[in-house]
Write a structure and sequence with these properties.
Distance between the termini: 44 Å
Number of helices: 0
Largest sheet: 9 strands, parallel
Strand order of the largest sheet: 1-4-7-10-13-16-19-22-25
Oligomer: single chain
Order of helices and strands: EEEEEEEEEEEEEEEEEEEEEEEEEE
Helix content: under 10%
Shape: globular
Strand content: over 45%
Structural class: mainly beta
Radius of gyration: 15 Å
Number of strands: 26
């Protein structure tokens, strides 16, 4: 299916939804999902969506975003009010050219978990990944004005776990992260927090 030039390509506020092999081009929001919804998106493309490729609002959304491409727009994926310990999986995706954060979670501390990012490429965005729970087997490069990966704080429940990833050619590499078995090089700032 194709969703083009809409205020919101898809809006879901309850129940479950599976979206496969779809295109979301030049919408205000590609997809918006509110409290209580499960969303699975696979094999889909998000390009030029002005505000968000995918916007989650609320404490309880669980989701799987797999094999998707996010190009341009303000944010690729934005999760507002993510106040629970839900499974929020992003894997095998590409995020490119966001004018703000490629991936943004409002919280990652204590019982408020950010998402888990696996096997993804996040590149050439103004800002990278903010407050994810973990980033694994991923490549982050070309973040122009901010940290490639920014955790929530220095406490053990606030940091972002970075495993087996490559972080290179960014304004800053990692802030408030626990980094293991990763390659971090050619960044203006390497690590803080």
């Amino acid at each position: 299916s194709s969703f083009n030039n809409c205020t919101k390509g898809i809006y879901i506020n309850s129940g479950n939804l599976v979206v496969e092999d779809s295109q979301f081009f030049n919408n205000g929001y590609g997809i918006e999902s509110d409290d209580g919804s499960y969303l699975e998106v696979t094999g889909s493309d998000f390009e030029g969506n002005g505000n968000y490729g995918i916007h989650f609002n609320g404490n309880s959304p669980y989701y799987l975003i797999e094999d998707c491409t996010f190009i341009g727009g303000n944010y690729g994926l934005y999760h507002q009010s993510n106040g629970s310990q839900g499974e929020r999986i992003i894997k095998d995706c590409e995020f490119q050219g966001a004018s703000n954060h490629a991936i943004y979670f409002q919280y990652n501390s204590g019982s408020y978990w950010g998402g888990q990012i696996y096997n993804s490429s996040i590149h050439d965005n103004v800002k990278g990944i903010y407050r994810a729970k973990s980033v694994t087997n991923s490549l982050v490069f070309g973040t122009s004005t901010d940290w490639a990966i920014w955790g929530s704080g220095s406490g053990s429940t606030e940091i972002t776990y970075v495993r087996n990833s490559t972080i290179t050619n960014n304004s800053g590499a990692v802030q408030y992260c626990d980094v293991e078995n990763s390659i971090v090089y050619f960044n203006n700032d390497q690590q803080s927090g």
